[in-house]
Amino acid sequence: MNTERTMGRESEEFQKNFTELDKVLQHEIKIYRNLLDIVRKEKELLVASRLDDLSENNRSKEAQLIKLRSLEQQRVKLATELCQALSLPADEPRLLDISNELGGELGDRLRNLHSVLSLLLKRVHELNQSNERLVNSALNSITGALKSLKSALDENPTYKRQGSEVKGSSQSGQLVSREA
Question: Which pTM was predicted?
């Protein structure tokens, strides 16, 4: 289909919706690029164990995600309206379906924006998974160290359960001497 098929007022409304969708998609791309930078920085902060900076980075990440949710709602609304104008199924509006139906320069524009968004989303997802593996690995190491420490302390108690002192010399694994 070509946009010339829609005439008069519908054409103006269609063009307005398309222009607005284009703006929303460009804004989403900008935010995804910011999010990609934040996720990259998150990895650096995790490796450097800079917890205060990591907390601030997480707040920035959450703010970007909130903006994206809002933009995504606008994108879906505008894409639905465009689908209806193009007589496409509007229950799940897809940019590629709209771009294929439009063809020409407008279709190419939507395909380009879709490709950029897909690539950015893929990169953010991959980095986020990498960061998650890093955090899980660190948590497993800490948990293992704590279990090892607890085990070492449990094996060499200073006092028995009855409260009497255990006789013998101080051994490795005990944090305090039995003698006061």
Answer: 0.71
Phi, psi of 176 (to 5 degrees): -130, 155
* Structural domain for 41, as ranges: 3-155
Question: Rounded to an integer, what distance in angstroms lies between the CA atom of residue 81 and that of residue 40?
Answer: 36
Question: Domain with 82 in it: what CATH number?
Answer: 1.20.58
Q: What is the dihedral of CA 156, 160, 165, 168, to 10 degrees?
A: -30
In a domain, 179, yes or no: no
Pick 147 or 37 by higher pLDDT: 37
Q: What tokens appear for 123 in the block? A: 């990169």
pLDDT per residue as tens digits for the range 56-110: 999 999 999 999 999 999 999 999 999 988 888 888 888 988 998 888 899 999 9
Query: Which element (helix H / strand E) includes 59?
Result: helix 51-85
Residue 89 contacts by C-beta under 8 Å, 6 or more apart in sequence?
83, 97
